[in-house]
Specification:
The protein is mainly beta. Among the domains are: 191-225 and 232-246, no CATH class; 299-332, no CATH class; 353-485. The protein has 3 helices and 31 strands. It has helices spanning 3-12, 16-20, 367-370, and strands spanning 44-46, 52-57, 60-63, 105-108, 112-114, 122-124, 129-132, 138-140, 145-147, 169-170, 201-204, 207-210, 213-215, 260-262, 268-272, 277-281, 293-296, 303-307, 313-317, 320-325, 330-332, 353-355, 361-366, 373-376, 384-389, 405-414, 421-426, 429-430, 434-435, 448-460, 463-473. It is rod-shaped, with a radius of gyration of 57 Å.
Length: 494
């Protein structure tokens, strides 16, 4: 039976499935919409080997293999579920040139090499951020450009920046494609955080940032955009020019013998040579301005000098004030030692020490506090000894140099001739005086004031020659007295 008869028979067969199984049916066209056809899979497209390459389902069409199309309709904005990966090179302008922004991260978890076609030279990704896993290499071959959508690329025309963009390329390290040299960035690097380098960073010709600090032969710009430089302890430079105000929050350290020059010609110099500190001025006055000033010992904290506003200048020895200026001159506390002294018109004065207790026993006269004039205003109650010293902790010997002289004057009220000075001492040692008249006094005066004068000459260490005189000044009598006819009991003062 011919195939035509079999096909004709199929048309009236009650069992079409059985009658159809007679070979291949070829038809130029079908009539009807095929809704009555059964046993035919119209949802798939197969290749010559019978493999399904396109499969329709309720969600759309699934393509297995490569889909090649001469053009695509629409802008792709409605596409979802795009796989993570790299896009192809695109032209800067024209239809189909748009790369659309997606807020996802391109994770590179295994070694990936990108070799852009020679016709494009630039590869773009749809991702704003590229994250390279630890120990993974992302290699851009042949010197091509790889552009992650870091700031977002516009959706129309030439690539544009999208508002709110700003992504990151994140990696544990960056190396040059040869695996040896450091990467270079022709247009510079903008850093908003901290730059950490284990070896060095080349900043200019002849300059490096190293592990022990930083140096540069040349800096460019005024530094107004530099931030995050709170710690400059490891920054060094041969020349630093600052225009404007420089604020140092953590102090400034300069090595020994490094001079800080001030002024156009460096007239003022500040430096420390390792042993001493210097402030050196070569022109004009060196003027220090302050309402009040004080110089203090750096170890013990004792005051060396005070300079009071509209007041006194005070000088101290071991924390004890020894000199003070006053409205009328100056006050010296203790003994003043001068190699020479010139006094102009006027008078030279010395305060006396008024002693309101009767002299008896050994009286220690402290010249540091009481000077060289003693006025005993109460009549002596017994014979007495005068010991001349600096004070309780200072010897008189330490206050004088060999070859110097001084004078001690003692005024003693006397009401009993039996009471007088029996011994004169310096620093507790008795002195053999040379008395005017050849002998020491053996009695005082019954009334009046006895005056002792000691001219002291230091001839060697703790060795003194003392020239002494004794005089009495009695009360003035207005009428004769029986005493007038009596012979004086006092030795002659002549």
């Amino acid at each position: 039976m011919s195939r035509a008869r079999e096909l004709a028979g199929f048309a009236t067969a009650t069992n079409p499935i059985q009658d159809l199984n007679v070979g291949v049916v070829t038809a130029i066209s079908f009539s009807g919409d095929g809704s009555s056809l059964t046993g035919i899979d119209a949802t798939s497209i197969k290749d010559g080997d019978g493999t399904v390459r396109a499969q329709a389902n309720t969600s759309g069409v699934v393509v297995t293999g490569i889909l090649t199309a001469t053009s695509l309709e629409g802008d792709g904005s409605a596409l979802t579920g795009l796989p993570a990966g790299l896009g192809t090179a695109v032209a800067a302008t024209g239809d189909g040139a748009n790369v659309y922004y997606t807020n996802q991260v391109l994770d590179v978890g295994s070694n990936l090499s990108i070799d852009v076609p020679a016709t494009a030279v630039v590869a773009y990704t749809q991702y704003p951020e590229v994250a390279v896993s630890s120990g993974i290499d992302l290699t851009i071959a042949d010197g091509d450009d790889f552009v992650a959508d870091i700031l977002g690329i516009g959706t129309t025309g030439a690539p544009q920046l999208l508002a709110g963009g700003g992504g990151r390329v994140r990696a544990d390290n960056f190396v040059a494609k040869d695996g040896f040299n450091a990467p270079t960035f022709a247009n510079g690097v903008n850093v908003t955080g901290i730059v950490t380098a284990t070896t060095s960073v080349q900043v200019s010709s002849g300059g490096t940032f190293g592990s022990n600090g930083a140096s540069a032969a040349v800096y460019y710009g005024d530094g107004s955009n530099l931030t995050g430089m709170a710690n400059t302890s490891d920054v060094s430079t041969s020349t630093l020019n600052v225009i404007g105000v420089s604020t140092l929050g953590g102090g400034s350290t300069m090595s020994d013998s490094v001079v800080s020059y001030w002024g156009t010609s460096g007239d003022l110099q500040l430096y420390h040579n390792g042993s001493h500190s210097y402030v050196q001025n070569s022109t004009g006055w060196l003027i220090l301005k302050s309402d009040n000033a004080q110089i203090v010992d750096g170890d013990a904290g004792d005051v060396h000098a005070n300079f009071n506003h509209d007041g006194a200048v005070e000088l101290f020895y071991d924390g004890s004030k020894k000199f003070e200026t006053t409205t009328s001159g100056a006050t010296i506390t203790g003994a003043g030692i001068c190699t020479s002294l010139s006094v102009g018109p006027g008078i030279v004065q010395e305060d006396y020490h008024s002693y309101g207790t009767a002299l008896t026993g050994t009286y220690n006269h402290d010249v540091v506090t009481h000077g060289m004039v003693l006025d005993s205003t109460v009549a002596a109650s017994a014979s007495f000894v005068i010991n001349l010293r600096g004070d309780g902790s200072t010897t008189f010997n330490s206050l004088m140099n060999v070859g110097q002289t001084t004078v001690l004057t003692v005024y003693s009220v006397s009401s009993n001739a039996s009471y007088y000075l029996t011994d004169f001492q310096i620093d507790g040692s008795s002195i053999t005086e040379k008395w005017n008249g050849g002998s020491a006094p053996s009695a005082g005066t019954a009334s009046g004031t006895d005056v002792y004068t000691f001219n002291i000459m230091k001839t060697a260490d703790a060795t003194f020659t003392v020239f002494a005189t004794f005089s009495n000044f009695c009360l003035l009598y207005t009428s004769p007295s029986p005493r007038d006819v009596e012979e004086s009991r006092m030795p002659s003062s002549s």
